[in-house]
Structures are given as structure tokens and as C-alpha cells.
Amino acid sequence: MFKKVLVANRGEIAVRIFRALEEMGIASVAVYSEQDRDALHAGRAEEAYNLGDGPAAENYLNVEKIIDAAKRSGAEAIHPGYGFLAENAPFAQACEDSGLVFIGPPPSAIEAMGSKTKARELMQAAGVPIVPGTTEPVKTVKDALKIAKGEIGFPVAVKAAGGGGGKGFRVALAEADLEGAFEGASREGEKFFSDPTVYLERYLPDPRHVEVQVLADRHGNVIHLGERDCSIQRRHQKVIEESPAPEWIVDEAMRARIGEIGVEAARAVGYVGAGTIEGLLQDGEYFFLEMNTRVQVEHCVTEMTTGVDIVKEGIRAAAGEPLSHRQQDIHLRGHAIECRINAEDASKNFAPAPGKIGAYSEPKGPGVRVDSGVGEGGEVSPMYDPMVAKLIVWDADRAQATKRMLRALDEYEIEGLKTLIPFHKALLSTEQWAKGETCRGLLEDKAWLKTLAFETPPKASEQGEDEKVEQTYTVEVSGKRFDVRVIGPPTAAFASSAQGAAMNGSAAAPRAKRSERKSAAGGGPDTLESPLQGNMWKVLVKEGDAVSEGQLLCIIEAMKMENEITAHKAGVITALPISEGSPIAAGAPIATIKSAEE
Ligand code: MV4
Predict the structure, then answer these.
(1) Domain boundaries 4-103, corresponding CATH code
(2) Is domain 132-202 classified as CATH 3.30.1490.20?
(3) What is the per-residue pLDDT for 526?
(4) pTM to 2 decimals?
(5) In this structure, which residue's CA is closest to atom 6 in ligand 1?
(6) Which class in CATH covers the domain with range 527-594?
(7) Whose CA is nearest to atom 13 of ligand 1?
């Protein structure tokens, strides 16, 4: 086994890997950017190397600096985590060339799965069902039209071959949309992956995203750990994941079938370590979508239901050890749910809401796990992913796990930041969630999302004035906390869960937390500043435009993510010092909006 391992990542996943290393008796090495000098992960390892200032390209994505740090520290292996260099075949190769073990699959497997057309071809040859469509790149709009009208039929999905996770994904509902979809997907492929190649798939109208965790060692053993249902997504970002899928969605026979598909797919590319086969499930049919050749954010729900430590197994496999479990020893028990606690404002189109964390207290108690990358006094930097933590719960079944999650969300206190906690509470209280629906309509429902603005409860007139409910608030007097009951019109928090008819018809009124009771800064300053550093990708408004609160103003591309920036208030745009294609710094002005009455 390795004696020392460097973790080329930050945040919660770096901490998660350090924990595994410690339990395995392996010394750990952290790397950090100048901005992350005080970050939790940088202080969590036995040794830490500063990779310098600047954007990720100059530190967390800098192959030379990372390999140099590994060499200097005497580490024998590098764990890439997820994101950054995790699915970068040249990096995996560079590790090998420097005599370091890359904790992950061979570069050839990363490369094969990196090209979505190559992956589809490989899977088809291995007998794995793929979404009907092309395995060859489609070169022109004319070719695309011929194929779409012929063998596939509308609606059709146009996807970038270099893409994945929804990047470079466009839908053409009918012939007239195809040209736009083709060019959009191609442009995004070129922009993000330097590859304009696209392919076509039949567009499935309302599939579920069901994926399967696999583990493979260097001795030819490949096993699967059952499925995860990740159908709750927002702009292709997963927000809630569960394992297993609701029992009425995936039964034992389907689970065995999906598991076999996962094992077949992993074998076909000579996989080693922990990986995930993503697929779509519709009308009892399962189709391979893509393989993620890394440990995933949502691996934890599978750890809870199987008892297998996926991170440790990945490290063991890389070191040449056999897997600790045989397929016949894997049994799923109970139900696990994960909520991503992102610093985002669901009521403002999920705009990133980075900042400094004030008081911070994590939920505890039976069946609760929190994997966090920041703590009290920590900072969610606009430079990086806005995920503060992952809250994972386990209980005997889905309904009980849901109640446990609502309880844990209620215990979670994060001051100073807007997070998805109110969103999760509201969503998990809906009838749609209880029924195991994909909730796609709900996630796009602006009016519903708006009710999640805890700090600016809608006016009574918007609420139905006659409605009166009893609510419990916690107030703090001289350092002591008291529960106070209030009878009155429902606040947004309660309205949303009550509206959803909830679990067993008895939604508990979420208590307003200290952080949720701060009054809104009525109107607020006129100038909206960029919450993050990036590139101005699209500007959708112009000076003189009248905008409503929450209206989309522009999209900033940062860290391969498109971040929608929405108006912080209603009014008229009097200044707009931004232009498409230009870089923008965190804190730089985006727009000045004057309210009508000013
Ligand atoms: C699809 C699809 C429908 N048809 N592909 C791709 C990336 C992943 N994040 C979601 N992706 C989808 N690919 C075809 N041919 C629909 C989605 C999709 C989706 C699927 C399941 C559950 C939620 C979803 C939300 C958005 C898009």
C-alpha cells in the first residue's frame, strides 16, 4: 500500500479523501492556491504545498506544479478527486511518466469515455444499450436534418462529442429548431472542449437520470454497488440524489440489469477504481448516456446504503490490491438522500451567492452525515464551485429518510450566506417529491422558486389574505433561545411546504432561523456587482431597459459553468458597463438599476 498520497483538489472532496487516507494509515499531502491559504483542506493534511496565486489554470489545473509538489513531498500517488484534473487523460499519463500512480483508471479509459461518440461506439459493440442515435460525428446541419428526419425522428437531442454533464446539449423539437440547436451545441463544444464535433440522439421527453456505481481492481474484478437516482437537476447540475431509486421506479430485476450494464461498460474500457455509468430510464427501458471516470460528488449515498467505502476502494485498486467485496456480498439496505448545500439563491434563478460564513452549525444525530469543505468563519470564494457542503441522511425507507432530511435541514445553521437549504426544505415537502417525480416543472417554476426568498416574504396581498396559520419561530434573548408561536398569514417558507400537501399531509412549519429573519435591505443599492470572476458570455439587456426583480441580465462563464446573473431589484438600467466576450472581475459593476420611484 502507498505510504504517502497527494490530493490534487480542494474543498469537501479533498477533506473526504484525507479522512480515508488517515484511516488507512497513509500520510497525506495537500496542495492549495494562494486564495485557499486558510481553507479547511489546506490545514487538514500532514503537509501542504502552495501552488500560487491566480485562476485555477495556474494552480489546481497546473500539471507541472502538482507533479512537482508530489515529487518534492515524496508522495507515491496522486488522488485527483472530481473536477479539475480528474478526467484529464494527459494528466493521468503525466503522472505515470513521472513514476507516480494516478488514483483512477488508465489514461486510455479516460480518453475512450471522454469522447462521447467513441464511448457510444464502444458501448454498442459491448452490447450495452445506448440512446438511439448516431455513433459517428454528424458533420453538417444538412446531414443532421437527414438523420433526424429519417432514422431518429423529432424531437432530437444535439450533443457535443467532447461534452458531458449537459454541456453542449441542445434540443430540437422540430425541423425548424435543428440549425440553431446544431450550431449552439457545436459552439459550446468548441468553447469548452476545443471540439466542435456533435452527434445526435433521440430526445426522451421525461426520462429519469439513473446511474450505477462501479468498482474495478487490477485483477479483473468488477462489481457494482446499485443505482443512484439523480433526476432532480437544475440546468444539468444535480441538486438532490438518492440511493436506491424509488422502489416503484427500479425493482430488483431492473437493478440487476442496470448493474450488469455498468459492469459490462467498465470491463469494455479496462476500468480500474471507482467510476459511474450514467444512463436514462424511460418506460422501463435503460440507456447508457456516458461514463464518469472519477469518484462523484454523490458517491456518499451509495456508501450509506452499501456500507462500502468507495474512496478507500479506489485507493486500494490503484495500489494493486484486490477489491474488499465480492458482488454477492453487496446488499443495499435502507435509503439515502443527499442534498447539495450550495451558496446559491434559488429565488434568484439559482444565482451564485458566495461570501463569508458567519455562525455555522451542522446537523447531527442518527443517520446524518455532513461532508463539508468550509466551516465557521470560512469563505465560499467566487473563484470556485459554490458548494458549501453535502448533507446526506440514511433511514430505513424513502419516506423516513425524507423526514430525517427535513429535520437535518432544519438543524443546519449557516449565517452570512444564502444557501439552497430553503429550496431543499420546500422541495422535499412537495407531493411531487413524495411521489418520486422528476420535478422538472417545479424546478423551472419561477413563481414557486420566488416563494423561497425567505428574507423578503411576499406581501400578504399576494398570499391570499384570509389564510392564517400557526408558525413557530426561534428568537434569541440574552443568548437564550425561545420558540415563539405566531398566528398570522403564512410566510413563504410555510406556504411552499403547505402548498405541496407534503408527506402524509402533515408538513411541519419550518422554523425561521436567525439568518432567515434578517429583514431585507429594502430596495438596496442600485449597482449590482459581479459575484464571481469569469468571462461575460451573454448580455441579454441594454441600457434604458426596464427590468423586473430576478430577470436574467447576463451569463458569466466561470470554471466551465454558466452563471446566470439576475436583476437584484426592479427598475430601469441606467448603466451597463459590460460587454459580451470580455473578462469580468469579482466585485466589478454589472448594472446600475434605478427604481421607478427614485
Ligand atoms: C438527455 C435527455 C433526453 N434525451 N438525452 C444529459 C446530461 C444530464 N445532466 C441530463 N441529460 C439529459 N440528456 C436525451 N437523448 C434529458 C436529459 C436531462 C435530464 C434527464 C434526466 C433527469 C433530469 C434531466 C434534466 C435535464 C436534462
Answers:
(1) 3.40.50.20
(2) yes
(3) 87
(4) 0.80
(5) 166
(6) mainly beta
(7) 166
